[in-house]
Amino acid sequence: MQVDRAWDELATAEGIARRATWDISGKILGDDAAVVPDPGAALTICADALVQGIHFDLGYWTPAQIGAKAVTVNVSDLAAMAAQPLWVLSTIAAPKHFDVDRLLEGLEARAASYGARLIGGDLTRSETVVISVTAIGTQLLPPLRRSGALPGDAVFVTGPLGLASAALARLSAAMPIDERTRLALLDPNARLDEGFAASRAGARAAIDISDGFALDLHRLANASEVGFEITNLPVAEGATTQDALGGGEDFELLFTAPDPSRVAEEFAKLGIKPPLMIGTVLADREHRTLAGEALDPIGYRH
Ligand SMILES: [Mg+2]
Predict the structure, then answer these.
(1) pLDDT tens for residues 94-130?
(2) pTM, full prediction
(3) How far is the CA of 5 from the centre of ligand 1 (A)?
(4) How much distance in Å is there from the Cα of 121 to the middle of ligand 1?
(5) Distance (Å, rounded) from C-alpha 142 to C-alpha 204?
(6) Is the dihedral of CA 281, 284, 287, 291 positive or negative?
């Protein structure tokens, strides 16, 4: 059994290290812990877990997609801070028949696409699949916090919303689904360049949309002690307004910035799609509206 052999090879932290884990000088690691060089700037660190039955269903997710998404959800948090990912650690719990090797392949390939490397982790037996990733980045640009928005800032989102939620609704009801919609849920990418461009453009606050636009916008507004007026909600083709408002998992960035022309300039410099300007930050923290109607903090609370 190939999977069993893979398990035996991987069934120690050292095994994960031996598989494909290198420090940045190219030396393979096989010690009890990874030793990494000081990158010369502040470190930005986050962790997030994906749990079978809560975040993914083995009926339509491949192990490689689960590994890739576990990296993406973390890198999305670093992107919201304008941090450059450097290293990831991964702890995996899985049943013996589960193809951990494929999961790690997906994880490493996606980490590499963001400029990061797997430097360690652990593997343990479990009845269901759980993967927890810690991502470590370096803060070469000013960090974007949730708390920095000021009245008068324009509110931006990096892309239309709701497609991941539309995909989940279709997959869980076994309805037909096109590839673009399916991959919005199963294989999303973090908006790393968008976070860098926003920071360079003088953005004052940011958050990634992981739990739903309305909920994440309220989180940013709460942290900044401000209100907002959203004039136009960008709904992805194939999604409903409800998907876009509360669906989550889009991993677009939501940010505020005082100078829209600087934002357009910095996004153009990186050759990425310009973000959509969707509203304004207000001083009155009680005023939180979408198209003139009160907007509740709807979203996915896990
Ligand atoms: Mg986040």
Answers:
(1) 998 999 999 999 999 999 999 999 988 888 899 999 9
(2) 0.90
(3) 36
(4) 22
(5) 10
(6) negative
